[in-house]
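Teaching note: in complex prediction, the entire set of molecules is handled at once rather than each chain in isolation. The prompt given to students was simply: 'Predict the structure of this complex.' The entities are:
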Amino acid sequence: MTRRGLLLALEIAVPLILLAMYAAWAGAKESFYFPPLDGIGERFVELWLSDRFVQDALPSLRRLAIGYVLLVVLGVSIGLVLGAFRLVQQAVQPFAEFLRALPAVALIPFGMLVFGVGDTMKIFIIVIGAIWPVLLNTIDGVRGVDPEMLEMARAYNVGRWGRIREIVVPAALPRVVTGMRTSLSIAIILMVVSEMVASRNGLGYFVLESQRRFAISDMWAGIVLLGIIGYVANFLFVRAERSVLRWHRESKGPAR
Amino acid sequence: MSGRAMLEVTSLAKSYQSRNGTTDAIADVSFRVASGEFVCVVGPSGCGKTTLLKCLAGLLSPTAGEVQLNGEPVRRPPPNMAFVFQDYSNSMLPWLRVENNITFPLRHKGVSADRRAALAEETLRVVGLGEFARHYPWQLSGGMQQRVAIARALAYEPEILLMDEPFASVDAQTRSDLEDLLLDVWARYGVTTVFVTHDIDESVYLADRVFVLNDRPSTVQMEVPVELPRPRDQITTKELTEFTKLRTEVMRTIKHARRSRSDEERMGQA
Ligand SMILES: Nc1ncnc2c1ncn2[C@@H]1O[C@H](COP(=O)(O)OP(=O)(O)O)[C@@H](O)[C@H]1O
Ligand SMILES: [Mg+2]
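The expected output is the structure of the full assembly:
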């Protein structure tokens, strides 16, 4: 077997073995906290292949998607401006550092006050808490653009806007994407927390509510779904990154 | 000098202001370049060659003096001028394929898509890289990347071509190939060329006239007309006694300038 094949087999086998171990352990133990695997699996299918998915999973995904798109758009555009204009960046730096240091969840009560307990508050928390990796990486990316590339474009009479769009943005993209990936995992965390604290629906709400109802299999089914969402999101992300940033990966490698 | 002056540099001076004071890079440089001419500017490293070229290109504004192109003062990069940079790797955009690197300036110039494709195809063929249009620049060797840079400059269809030590970081064999390629291209397109180098042989081999700069802050120490026959050849041209005489002359000028400069400094200190 090739090395690659072996790795792939291990990647599939290890989780399966762990699951089997859990099934055997939980099945024998009949613990209240760790229900048997087939029980969780049953609930998982019942819950998420029914309208519970529409009721709880979809709202979560919608909040996550809106918040994430918003924070990426905001983070990249603010980052471009701050990266390009040193003076502005220095002026807002202390304020930005303060906001960044502030744990976003501490703003949930404030968010509830201003926006109520609806989607707006949760999106607000996601944006304010998860924007920083995108923003700061964009600033760094813009700073790191090779001045010679910009000078080349200037020598060929490419205007300011063209230089930003066609040199600064693509050159900063690898950093931006790194930031986007970190932001995504923070956004998922904030989605769950904001739904646990103040919500009538959503996966965070569902997990907490199941625990309160002592529906432990349901709770685990919710947790597993959250795990799957995080995993799939990251997987899709890495895939997209590979194709978009092929030049970046390969140009850093050894020359042909 | 034959033909009308296309580029006219008058009493050009450039100083850099930085935190630790002022650096005078160019003290006083004047020269004229006729339409279709191939001119080399040669001088030791750090004497202000890049600075001079960037002033000509409208990338830097001079502290004093003026640059005129076709009688018009140059204040920003002119649309009929192309620039080839010393550092090829940073002047190529790694996310674009070779052909798109060539058409990048053309899109902003408003050249139609068909024409852009035709220009990219033609210029790549001229520099001998017809097969590499779909490659990325980082898949090519240094010498090939510099050919792409030349193709990009040609595709821009400039009247004047400025080149900043374009062959300084390739190996000797590639370098003489590139020199001959450049001479071919120059003869074929008739583009006025200002070529900066620190290599004396290279300047004499390529040029119609050589301007010798002295150490910073630089002035034109001497103008050397080169009347070697064209087309030139790496072996037969360099065998000519005339070639040897010219390169010795340029070398002596640079050496002499250095000596008198350090004499002055010694006198100044005494
Ligand atoms: N942006 C700058 N700021 C300050 N000094 C500079 C700058 N660019 C070049 N210089 C100085 O000007 C002098 C001439 O530089 P340059 O034109 O690059 O010389 P060359 O191309 O002949 O090697 C050098 O002493 C260099 O240190
Ligand atoms: Mg230089």
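Point out the following to students. The first helix of chain A runs from residue 3 to 29. Chain A touches chain B at residues 146, 148-149, 151-159, 162, 166-167, 170-171, 173, 247-248, 250-251, 255-256 (CB under 8 Å).
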